[in-house]
Amino acid sequence: MAQNIYDDPDFFSGYSQLPRQVQGLEGAPEWPAIRAMLPELSGKRVVDLGCGFGWAARWVRGQGAASVLGLDLSQKMIERARADTVDSAIEYRIADLDTLALPEAAFDLAYSALTFHYVQDFARLVRVIRKALVPTGHFVFTIEHPIFMAAAHPHWISDEDGRKTWPVNGYAIEGERRTNWFAEGVLKYHRRLGTTLNALIDAGFQIGRVEEFAPTPEQITQTPQLSEELERPMMLLVSAFVPASAPT
Ligand SMILES: C[S@@+](CC[C@H](N)C(=O)[O-])C[C@H]1O[C@@H](n2cnc3c(N)ncnc32)[C@H](O)[C@@H]1O
Q: pTM for the full model?
């Protein structure tokens, strides 16, 4: 059963103050890399899985998307998304991605940011998404990188030169990971890189691009704390699509 930590008042209050939630997409250093992976949006029907405050839903509509369905487990996130959105072509619904059902061939783009590591059965979800997309439909998502997830963060250790290193523990052991981030024992699911990508291939997707986000030198000059992201990849960005010849 999904944990729904985003409805915990203390977690929600801490999470709401992250730069990416205060400033929106421009506050997320990986956003330029995600944007480069997105298809042309004009007239597209979009589903945003784990939509949070609805930043991406509003942005894709601004790019000409025909409609957006934003789904999220958390009532607090959905309430905030609804409060911040004045657009009848965007609908927000509470839904658990672990048990999600979607209409078949109803969307041109499935998008998700930093949510799938909370989902227990990723392969099932990917099959649902594949069926919900039309042929040539796109699937673009980000997750916590499995190397970041496997590292028992936030345990920095120093090597002999005093340089911080980031250990990766139990990478091959998939399944539950607990972290303390705005709350004790936040539940996430670790999957190897191959498991994530093979779930897409097995569901009939063709993989378009895979990025292991690292900040640019300009981003580090602007925000020096981002240099930590050079030590290990924190985010994995993937774009995939349904082949034109695929059966619906
Ligand atoms: C890190 S936030 C990302 C929100 C948004 N995509 C963004 O980038 O701003 C993760 C979101 O996933 C949602 N979430 C977690 N587990 C979920 C599940 N099982 N089903 C649906 N949404 C879930 C949370 O409520 C939260 O809104």
A: 0.94
